Amino acid sequence: MQTNTQPYSTTRGVMPTFPENGYYGLGRIQLFAYAYYRLSREEAQKSESTSISNQKKIVEAYCKQHGITILKYFVDDGWSGGNFERPGFQEMMRALESGKANVVITKDLSRLGRDMRESSYYAEQFFPENQIRYIAIADNFDSENENVMAPFQFAMNEVYLRDGSRKIKDVLKMKRQRGEYCACAPYGYMKHPQSKDVLVPNEDTAPVVRRIFERAAAGDSCVKIAMALSAEGIMPPLKYRAMCRDNFTPEGAARASDIWNHTTVKRILKNRVYLGHTVLGKTKKVSVKSKKKVPIPQEDWAITEATHEPLVDQATFDKAQINMGKASRDYRQYDHVRKSIFGGIAVCSKCGHSLCSSGTVHKGEREKYWFLSCNHTRKDLANPCTGVNIRYTDICEIVRQDLNSLIALSDDEINALVQSVIAAQSSKLNIVDKKAQIEQAKNRLKMIDRMVTKMYLDNAEGKISDDRLSRVVADLEKEASILETKIAELDVDDPADEIQENYERFFELAKRYTYIETLDRDTLITFVDRIEIGEKILPEGYVKMPRKNAPYQQSIRIFYKFIGEIVNEPVREFAPGSQLPA
After folding, report:
1. How are beta strands 370-373 and 528-537 bridged, if at all?
2. Does 247 have pLDDT greater than 80?
């Protein structure tokens, strides 16, 4: 019989064919065993009692006492019991197909696994159906015997798994709040030799990161940067990890490419960790039993600023963000081209696309006929925009006036503004009510854990049937998953400290200016993240813009760095050709 070289499938509907040389009804009395040992990282830190060496001693002593010959042992060191795709376990399942062993033995049931359904399936169904005896020494479990307490034991192992997962989440959350970098060090950094939660620059890769940002800030595209790095033979991040840092298998290292990809460059340019900030919690697992991860909204990321040495300054980082993906020739060298300072900042509020310079020249006049317009209006597009536009001089003047009004605020006025924002945000988030909902959900989760444990006890005593147990536990697990998602969504910190800090950062920048005479690109990107331009609201009875100087309204929303939008009424009054109101 050929040995399957592919990973063993845990799909229950498909059973491999095992030779009929087991001990059931064939008069075979000699027992040949495969011993299986497993240890998770969390268990390794707690005590020596569950160590691989301790498991070996217990299993070997038991086999010697009962006349069982151990043919081979399989080990998964550092693997969770909730994951049945462990390499050692998979290798053992393939080895069982040879028919050389008729016993699988572990120190206890938790070594086989902590997932209640999968562990019970292998111990009570799969192994017996394939004439393989399973023994868990410490739990006095033998698949040849009646194991009355087995359901309760499987349930308690899963409770341990869930409780451990919850504790790990709490520890990680606490570390994130303290600004500790509890993740793999990003390219350009390494973990501090004395503290594994602190990043320090890697002298081999930090210069590469700085160079990437400098070239992007100078206008080079991600594709151009990637091609240059590849041409110079610089190892990409994954290749560097495989060859110089992490313990990759030979097969894994061989899959790491020597060629830089433009998406890798883009990922580096967008990562705020290079500003010296810790940015974690971008994804989360769907549930304890699932490997799938889903993205978390950016506003819910765990961000702690100034936790380690930055590789780039804020100005270089901002310029790189603005230039990212443009890859166009420098049109500003031509005098006849209108040079807008709003590229990548002014966007259409209807479709979200950036506004482009447009206009004409009449009797030598250029500024009067210069507009920012949405060009995402072609009829061949799937969802064309109806378009918005604004006179270039108008938007320049509006932003300049808004900035000057902020620069002119006194300390008392700034404090009053901050307090009003805090009050509005706290009311919007309803912090007190959300904390009460979180506490209620956590109490319900504890109750569900107690209910599951009690039901398995009742099942072991024959008070409820297996079918009813399966249905009710499945419903409770579904409810628990919904509650865990709800807790994650409601877990909102009080915004007061963050708002206070962000406004201090913004007005620290503002104090460098006394008055802005002319708005330029550098000043704009220093203060402004985004400007959303809405469509014009024409006077009653008009369906298009009148030729005469009739007034109209237009929404202009300015989102500032760190603090977002300040203006509560973004609709402005205009009279074409007239002076804007001060």
Report:
1. unpaired
2. no
State how far the Cα of 189 lies from the Cα of 274, in Å rounded to an integer: 9
**Does the pLDDT value for residue 370 go beyond 80?**
yes
Between the CA of residue 218 and those of 262, 327, 377, what are the distances in Å? 17, 11, 31
The DSSP secondary structure of 89-147, one letter per residue, reads HHHHHHHHTTSS--EEEESSHHHH-S-HHHHHHIIIIIHHHTT-EEEETTTTEETTS--
Asked whether 15 and 129 are in contact (CB, 8 A), the reply is yes
CATH of domain 178-323: 3.90.1750.20
Strand partners, 304: 278
Query: Global pTM?
Result: 0.39
Amino acid 130 reads: N
Amino acid identity of residue 267, one-letter, is R
| CA distance to 17, 186, 386, per residue, from 392 (Å) | 76, 42, 19
For residue 581, what are its two tokens?
């109101």
CA distances in angstroms from 154 to 134, 149, 456, 463, listed in the order given: 15, 9, 9, 18
Instruction: Give the list of residues 6+ apart from residue 358 with CB closer than 8 angstroms, or none.
Output: 370, 371, 372, 373, 375, 389
Length of the chain as a residue count: 582
CA atoms within 13 A on the CB side of 209: 25
* Distance (Å) of CA 425 to CA 39, 54, 300, 409, 507: 47, 56, 15, 21, 19
Q: Look up residue 501 and give its DSSP letter.
A: H
CA distance 346 to 304: 29
pLDDT number for residue 6:
43
CATH of 31-163, one of 3.40.50.1390, 3.30.70.20, 3.20.20.80, 3.90.640.90: 3.40.50.1390
Max Cα–Cα distance, the chain, nearest Å: 108
Between 323 and 318, residue with greater pLDDT: 318
- Domain extents in the chain: 31-163, 178-323, 331-408+515-574, 430-490
Q: Return the H-helix or E-strand segment holding 411.
A: helix 411-429
Contacts of 226 (CB under 8 A, 6+ apart): 260, 261, 262, 264, 265
| Residue 209 near residue 190, CB atoms below 8 Å | no
Mean pLDDT of the chain: 79
Q: Are 367 and 395 in contact (CB under 8 A)?
A: no
Tokens of 124: 């009570």
